[in-house]
Amino acid sequence: MKTSTATLAALTLLAAAPTVALAQAPGPVREREARTDAAPIKAYKVILVGDSTMAVGSGWASHFCALHVKSPTACLNLGRGGRSTRSYRTEGSWDIALNEAKAKGYAATYVLIQFGHNDQSSKGERWTEMATEFPANLKRYVEEVRAAGAEPVLLTPLTRREFRDGKLYNTLDVWSEEVRKVAAETQTPLVDLNRDSAAYVEKLGPVEATMLAMAPPTAGELAAARTGTTLPPRSAEEARVPDAPTTPTGPRGQYGLKFDYTHLGEDGARAFSRIVAEDLAAAVPALRSQLVP
């Protein structure tokens, strides 16, 4: 079969087409500015120190860092479940927090301190005397934060969500008063989370407040809430939701999900992190530019 001269010419052009396309000159390059160095960043750091109502997976602080802090601010959640002003120090967590507070390069570092739930506990490694040891521990934290070159901020403890006869049963109000006294005596900024979280929960009422927990209430717990008086909290073991099955790569860490009147699920964490952001902006005006409503 003979190939005509015209066909050969067409095939030659087709074969050359990709090469021609690749060889085309690029579009006009926009003229670039002369190279300069970026202006020094004005960075801030917020360190969160406290118990499970602040900790990852059960508290408000991770949502605070994720939703209410701008990118020039490093936000470090060092909340630990089951810790009191005493056990947080004795186990070594406070040393970790202080080392973080001493890190250089920040325009200002703030250490937010929230305890009370486990100081109120009866467990041997946790409890403290409310009128003496608890405020003394808080004062020592404040002094050491300042000695590290950082700024302390005290928070009253998040309210629990138990109700009696339609009224919030706030067992942490007296502990919160001790925090307020320390803040006044040491001239430390105060976020009155107990006051404002209690007002929020009381406005919700006992039924809606159950939806702030890590897991749904039982039918009995919900029925009791409708009467205005919540049932006593179940033990942690009884209230815990079964762990997720192991993954194809083997066992993984688990959050201990459970229904109670203390710890927070997604809705609770969002609500209370927003309250903290608003109160912190009022308490620490120098940090206001870094806090998102």
Overall description:
The protein has 293 residues and is α/β, with parallel strands linked by helices. It has a single domain (44-234, 258-288), classed as SGNH hydrolase (Rossmann fold). It has ten helices and seven strands. It has a five-stranded parallel sheet, with helices on both faces. Strand 5 (163-164) and strand 6 form a beta hairpin. Helix 5 (133-147) crosses helix 6. The longest helix is centred in the first third of the chain and has 19 residues, at 5-23. It is globular. 39% of the residues are buried. The model is unreliable at 7-21 (pLDDT under 50).
- Give the CATH topology: Rossmann fold
Distance linking N and C termini: 79 Å
Structural class given helices, strands, pairing?
alpha/beta
Number of strands: 7
Q: How many DSSP helices?
A: 10
Radius of gyration: 28 Å
Q: pLDDT average, as an integer? A: 92
Count up the domains: 1
What is the string of helix and strand elements? HEHEHHEHEEEHEHHHH
Silhouette: globular
CATH architecture identity = 3-Layer(aba) Sandwich
Largest sheet: 5 strands, parallel
CATH superfamily: SGNH hydrolase
Low-confidence stretches: 7-21
Helicity level, as a percent range? 25-40%
Q: Order of strands in the sheet with the most strands?
A: 2-1-3-4-7
Percent in strands: 5-15%
- Top-tier CATH class: Alpha Beta
